[in-house]
Design goal:
By secondary structure, the chain is α+β, with helices and mostly antiparallel strands. The chain is 31% helix and 28% strand. It contains five helices and ten strands, in the order ββαββαβααβββαββ. The chain has helices at 19-27, 43-51, 69-79, 82-93, 137-149, and strands at 2-6, 9-13, 33-35, 38-42, 56-58, 97-100, 108-111, 124-130, 153-159, 165-170. The strands form two sheets. It has a five-stranded mixed β-sheet with strand order 3-4-2-1-5, covered by helices on one side. A five-stranded mixed β-sheet has the order 6-7-8-9-10. Strand 8, helix 5 and strand 9 form a beta-alpha-beta unit.
């Protein structure tokens, strides 16, 4: 399947022969947003599919030269942080459905295995930090408060220098 890169969005133009694959990516696997005859993927989603051998990424619709994975990896490192991709890949490999958590002040919303965005609400908000990051107590409290306020669990994903991830589930409690 072919995706064309622009900014941090990869678009797949749905044509007759690609119709079923692109639609299945969205409807069965919950990748991207389907708008008319175009499936838009974030660069992180597209890179994940590229690494799995399910998508080739080109600079634009006129180009015949596939972009190398190192090129896309460097864009991710430069713009959105590679830790975000590492956590995305780990959670996706575990079978979770992942959507953006931007409106909740987190990196991702996470749906339990077997659930999809159209079938209910997400169960978790995922906040990503690096192991050397000094977190402000007020910021930390706000992450927990937002998750509690929208009836979701907060997963704190701590990424170390070796790209290992430790997850902590954080809950709001009243004394």
């Amino acid at each position: 399947m072919r995706g064309d890169l622009s900014d941090e969005i990869v678009t797949i133009k749905i044509e007759e022969n690609l119709n079923q694959k692109a639609i299945a990516l969205n409807q069965k696997s919950s990748f991207g947003n389907l708008e008319g005859d175009v499936l838009e993927l974030s660069i992180i989603e597209a890179f994940y599919l590229m690494e799995k051998g399910r998508l080739n990424i080109y600079e634009n619709s006129e180009s015949d030269e596939k972009l190398e994975s190192n090129y896309i990896r460097n864009i991710i490192k430069k713009n959105s942080g590679y830790a975000k991709y590492i956590v995305y890949r780990d959670l996706k490999d575990r079978g979770y459905i992942i959507k953006t958590g931007f409106k909740y002040g987190s990196e991702f919303r996470l749906y339990e295995r077997g659930k999809s965005p159209g079938e209910g609400h997400s169960d978790y908000l995922v906040k990503i930090i690096h192991e050397n990051y000094e977190i402000n107590a007020l910021d930390f409290a706000s992450y927990v408060r937002v998750a509690h306020g929208v009836k979701k669990h907060l997963l704190l994903a701590v990424v170390d220098d070796e790209e290992d991830i430790t997850y902590y589930e954080v809950e709001w409690t009243r004394p």
